[in-house]
Specification:
Number of strands: 14
Strand content: 15-25%
Strand order of the largest sheet: 4-3-2-1-7-6-5
Length: 450
């Protein structure tokens, strides 16, 4: 496929750009393979044009067109929640521009994304890929204890396609046992170390659900792994991010939970967190309420409450606090999982570390946390962030889990103003980049794809 085949009109004169907080600007609209540009006409002889718009087309969530006589208006609803309007002279030009933007914004091939074409001046492309290796994180743990080791059991991604090549596991468990434990966990996501609490030596692990099924199957290697993880701790807690009913239903489909008889030192706690369609629909309702300027304050607060977005924020923070309290106050180990272990699981483990560990609240520490707990841990960014709040397409696997995490971090920053070494600008930049970016950090669904 060539990008030129998707562009029906590449240049239109006398286009008027309008948007919230922007003065109307008239200029030349250009469509390239990845960008929509509008530059205003020069103010005088020899004066340079002013670039009024430089929009990554991947950022477009929905395209709406309205024809009126011989001209038309295109409304672009962006994934970063901006709404832009383009008044285009000529009906044919308007239809061609709308069709071109729709086609280019729908390209789904990873290799056709802008990061593969972007060549910024003065940037060495390899610099950012190795800033936060797991080996460095493990060295900090190894300086405290010899109970854990760095395993290369997944070096070719054959044990678990959504885990990174290097994983931190109990030193007493060999790679053969890990492979057998992986076959007992959803997607091969066997329990691995997420966080080591230096104060008392307890740990937080994450995994996929066990595949006990209706016959309550057992796996000695998985039981050995979790027993080894406890080490000197008297007990552990399994924080399951599904409801008890959902966990029972999963068992009938081949999933399930850790039975007490097989894991006697582990106590299960159910803290249901929404994901998938309910969370995406909550996000859409929130954005709809924020965009309705006609609402009174009382009506707006009612719409905000009915969106249930803040309920999701509260539930996520409460569950993360529970995990943190188990480690800090109960001096117990924690295993976090839901079903797949790639969504709400990572939300809880990342927030719990932010609460417990001051180093994660520095700029560099927060970047390392994102790298370990979201990117390397296998959150499927490509499918979760395929669409934002405006898309008219039928929902597939979209869900704003990462945005929910960023909102939770913002709430912590508001509650404890001096606790974070970074602010809202970084969180907004991360939100923008997760949905559409010039860089490859959030490309794909896992490290194997990247």
């Amino acid at each position: 496929m060539e990008f030129a085949e998707l562009i029906k009109t590449s240049r239109v004169e006398s286009v008027v750009l309008a948007g919230a907080g922007l003065p109307p600007a008239r200029g030349t609209l250009c469509i390239t393979s990845h960008h929509l540009l509008l530059s205003s006409r020069p103010g005088g002889a020899g004066a340079a044009a002013t670039v009024e718009l430089w929009l990554l087309i991947r950022n477009v969530d929905a395209v709406e067109k309205r024809l009126c006589g011989s001209s038309g208006t295109i409304t672009l609803r962006c994934k970063d929640l901006r709404v832009l309007q383009l008044e285009i002279p000529g009906m044919e030009e308007c239809l061609n521009v709308a069709s071109s933007i729709e086609a280019l914004s729908s390209v789904d091939s990873l290799m056709m994304m802008y990061p593969f074409f972007y060549r910024p001046q003065g940037l060495r492309l390899e610099d950012g890929w190795h800033l936060f290796p797991l080996e460095r994180f493990f060295q900090c743990i190894a300086a405290q204890t010899n109970q854990w080791r760095l395993s290369a059991v997944n070096k070719d991604f054959s044990t678990c396609p959504t885990y990174p090549p290097a994983l931190i596991v109990p030193a007493a468990v060999d790679d053969g046992a890990l492979r057998k434990a992986a076959r007992f966990r959803h997607g091969g996501r066997f329990p691995v170390l997420s966080y080591y609490h230096r104060k008392n030596g307890t740990v937080m692990l994450r995994s996929g659900q066990p595949l006990t099924g209706p016959n309550r199957k057992r796996c000695p290697e998985d039981e050995l792994l979790l027993a080894a993880a406890l080490a000197q701790a008297a007990r552990g807690f399994v924080v399951d991010t599904r409801s008890l009913q959902a966990a029972k239903q999963a068992r009938m489909g081949g999933g399930g939970t850790e039975p007490k008889s097989a894991y006697p030192r582990w106590k299960r706690l159910h803290r249901p967190l929404e994901r998938g369609r309910p969370l995406q629909e909550s996000f859409v309702r929130l954005v709809d309420a924020c965009n309705d300027a006609s609402l009174s304050m009382d009506r707006w607060l009612s719409r905000l409450e009915s969106s249930r977005w803040l309920s999701h924020v509260k539930a996520a923070l409460s569950t993360a606090c529970l995990a943190a309290q188990c480690l800090e106050r109960e001096e117990a180990c924690v295993l976090v999982h839901g079903a797949e272990g790639t969504d709400t699981t990572l939300l809880v483990t990342a927030l719990a570390q932010l609460i417990l560990d001051p180093s994660c609240r520095t700029l560099a520490g927060f970047q390392g946390l994102l790298e370990r707990e979201w990117i390397q841990a296998g959150h499927p960014f490509h499918v979760r962030c395929a669409r934002s709040a405006y898309s008219h397409a039928r929902l597939k696997q979209e869900a704003p889990l990462f945005l929910l995490f960023l909102d939770c971090v913002w709430q912590l920053g508001r509650q404890f103003p001096r606790s974070l070494e970074f602010g809202e600008r970084l969180l907004l930049a991360l939100f923008d980049s997760a949905y559409a970016s010039s860089y490859g950090t959030f490309l794909g669904n896992n490290e194997k794809e990247r």
